[in-house]
Design goal:
By secondary structure, this protein is an alpha/beta fold. The chain folds into 2 domains: 2-125 and 197-324, Malonyl-Coenzyme A Acyl Carrier Protein, domain 2 (3-Layer(aba) Sandwich), CATH 3.40.366.10; 130-188, Malonyl-CoA ACP transacylase, ACP-binding (Alpha-Beta Plaits), CATH 3.30.70.250. The protein contains 13 helices and 10 strands. The chain has helices at residues 26-37, 41-46, 50-54, 56-74, 94-101, 107-125, 140-149, 169-177, 200-209, 234-243, 251-261, 274-282, 297-307; strands at 2-6, 87-90, 130-137, 153-159, 162-168, 183-188, 222-223, 230-231, 265-268, 287-290. The strands form 3 sheets. Strands 2-1-9-10 form a 4-stranded parallel β-sheet, with helices on both faces. A hairpin with a 2-residue loop joins strand 4 (153-159) and strand 5 (162-168). The longest helix has 19 residues, at 56-74. The radius of gyration is 18 Å and the shape is globular. The relative contact order is 0.18.
């Protein structure tokens, strides 16, 4: 049983798209998508520095484009596909990638949506000085209660001992000084408090765009960040994509659903690493592969052929090299 997942903001690194441009047709696809989003995705994916690709309005379209490009190269969909996934999901902006893979949105509509999302979230973040910090370790209930006491929002409950807190810089400063028992706090280099009430203006922008999208029902199970549940109506997927901008990401519940479905393997599209890192701790025994470069395509196709459509049967732990599973806090 194979789940294909797409990472969220923070997974991008300078130059990560460079090796993908060596594949036939990749540069042309990215050029066309660049016209749609109004950004030079080839430049940002190959030559831009860390600060440039940290910009929300750049990072989000770049991540969706990378996810679509690498998923397309896998060849799991359409006629002749080997090992079609049994379910798809994405973390935060990765949900837009997952919506395309599930057949809910076209590539063009998804890229138009994410370009609007990135710009609107950047504008909303500029209103108040806010940010996010990863809280690593500690008892989950204790951490959540501590964040409530500081008026911080648990913007991402990622499971495997990782919660991302969001709020004003002043509130985050208090968190750094008053850490929950047994935890570490790591400030994240983001421009605002994503997945909180601070993003309400971005929700309004996406609500205005949504009626212009062509929407279909998912062609395979789509697992939502809102509550970890499968969603079988395309209109509901889009509604959740809109409202999710100002609501917490429940990746922990997504992984619980994967477990209930009987997942035996997870492949994370480019720039993979973060979500399989979480899965290694939360879903022991599940085979994982991070599609970081085209060098991982052959292994990913083999894993998909072995596991897609198969019932759970105690699959062995994966043997993918560590450099294919590097983890970054998601937000």
């Amino acid at each position: 049983m194979l789940v294909l997942v797409a990472p969220g903001q923070g997974a991008q690194t300078p130059g990560f798209l460079s090796p993908w441009l060596d594949l036939p047709g990749a540069a042309d696809r990215l050029a066309g998508w660049s016209d749609t989003v109004g950004l030079d995705l080839v430049h940002y994916g190959t030559k831009a520095d860390a600060d440039e690709i940290r910009d929300t309005k750049v990072a989000q379209p770049l991540l969706v484009a990378a996810g679509l490009l690498s998923a397309g190269e896998l060849g799991l969909f359409g006629n002749g596909g080997t090992g079609r996934p049994d379910a798809v999901a994405g973390h935060s902006v990765g949900e837009i990638t997952a919506a395309v893979l599930a057949g809910v949105l076209s590539e063009q509509d998804a890229l138009s949506f994410v370009a609007t999302r990135g710009r609107a979230m950047a504008e909303a973040a500029a209103v108040t000085e806010t940010g996010m910090s990863a809280v690593l370790g500690g008892d989950q209930d204790t951490v959540l209660a501590h964040l409530t006491g500081l008026d911080l929002t648990p913007a991402n409950i990622n499971g495997a001992g990782q919660i991302v807190a969001a709020g004003t810089l002043e509130q985050l400063g208090v968190l750094a000084e008053q850490r929950p028992e047994g935890s570490r706090v790591r400030p994240l280099a983001v421009a605002g408090a994503f997945h909180t009430a601070h993003m309400a203006p971005a929700v309004a922008a996406l609500e205005a765009l949504a009626p212009n999208l062509t929407v279909a029902d998912p062609s395979l199970p789509y697992v939502s960040n809102a509550d970890g549940q499968k969603v079988d109506k395309g209109t509901e997927v889009v509604r959740r994509l809109v409202t999710q901008v100002s609501h917490p990401v429940r990746w922990d519940l997504c992984m619980e659903t994967f477990k209930q479905l009987g997942v035996t393997a997870i492949i994370e599209v480019s720039p993979g690493g973060t979500l399989v890192g979480l899965a290694k701790r939360a879903l022991p025994g599940v085979r994982t592969l991070a599609l970081k470069t085209p060098e991982h395509l052959a292994a990913a196709r083999e894993l998909a052929a072995e596991t897609a459509g198969n019932p759970p049967q105690g699959a062995p732990a994966d043997s993918i090299p560590q450099d294919a599973t590097e983890e970054h806090p998601q937000r």
